[in-house]
Amino acid sequence: MNGYMSASFVTINGFSTAYRFDGPENGRVVVLSNSLMSNYDMWDWTVPALSDRYRVLRYDTRGHGRSGIPPGPYTIDLLAQDLSALLEALKIPKAHIVGLSMGGMIAQQMGAKFPHQVLSLGLCDTASEMPPRDIWAERIEIASTKGIAGLVDGTVKRWFTPEFIARAPEEIEKVRAFVLGTKAEGYIGCASGIRDMAQTTMLLKIKSPALIMTGRQDPACTVDQSTVLHRMIEGSEMVVLEDAAHLSNIEQPQAFNQNLRRFIDRVDDLL
């Protein structure tokens, strides 16, 4: 699949945002928010599990994919303001918000600061803080001097288990393509926001139903970091996917999709 064949664009907060809808026009909306160094094609493995019932909206975060690259640095709060503005521009009053990694950080902000737009939260392979700062300084320096190509191999090794890398070369090539498609300026803008993020206390403000889901072998956003989210968000549910690292929706799509769909259906059936 290549969602860019049917991408649409809208200007929000002064830049062009690429987005795509799938599923029935009268379905409740599920928003999918991408990770750092990806684009909305990372959800190709997830959309078919939702689009029979739901109107699935995926979009490229500022600085990523085909969305514009405003001058940085950015903050996670700013990225959440973008999503809030996107929903307003598309006349979507409320939605189920699902994000992975950086997308999950944005979803946390949505739950805390824009609760009137949130039906539920899916916080996948994500965290409320991402220390240490020197790791991000090093990655930003590499992106500045060598471009994204200098980061791609290390990124793939963090995102997937060695077993998956060995057995799924076609999937890995798709991932490498959207990583390499990220512009250095966009990466640096968003990575700066992740570096400076400190939103653990903010989690106490989240009252929406929340699913926290993570890969057991995720070295980037660990099970311990997901446990913090689970403990801080009252009434949340936590699922750990075995044999998955950071992009668990791609490495274990069946388990990821089953758990996500079960959670969203349960919330949506009560609306």
Overview of this structure, please?
This protein starts with 7 loop residues before the first strand and ends with a helix. The chain has ten helices and eight strands. With 271 residues, the chain is of the alpha/beta class. Strand 7 (210-215), helix 8 (223-232) and strand 8 (237-241) form a beta-alpha-beta unit. An eight-stranded mixed β-sheet has the order 1-2-4-3-5-6-7-8, with helices on both faces. The longest helix is centred in the C-terminal third of the chain and has 16 residues, at 253-268. The chain has one domain: Alpha/Beta hydrolase fold, catalytic domain (Rossmann fold). It has helices at 76-89, 102-113, 133-146, 152-159, 162-167, 169-180, 184-196, 223-232, 248-251, 253-268, and strands spanning 8-12, 15-22, 29-33, 55-59, 95-100, 118-124, 210-215, 237-241. Helix 1 crosses helix 2 (102-113), helix 3 runs antiparallel to helix 7 and helix 4 crosses helix 6 (169-180).
Low-pLDDT runs of 5+ residues are none
Q: What portion of residues belong to β-strands? A: 15-25%
Q: What's the main sheet like?
A: 8 strands, mixed
CATH topology: Rossmann fold
Residue share in helix: 40-55%
How many structural domains?
Answer: 1
Give the CATH class.
Alpha Beta
The CATH superfamily appears as Alpha/Beta hydrolase fold, catalytic domain
Q: Strand order, main sheet: write it out.
A: 1-2-4-3-5-6-7-8
Q: Please state the CA-atom Rg, rounded to the nearest Å.
A: 17 Å
Mean pLDDT equals 96
The ordered string of helix (H) and strand (E) elements is EEEEHEHEHHHHHEHEHH
What is the global morphology? Answer: globular
Oligomer: single chain
Number of helices: 10
Give the distance, in angstroms, between the N- and C-terminal Cα atoms.
Answer: 32 Å
CATH architecture: 3-Layer(aba) Sandwich
Strands, count: 8
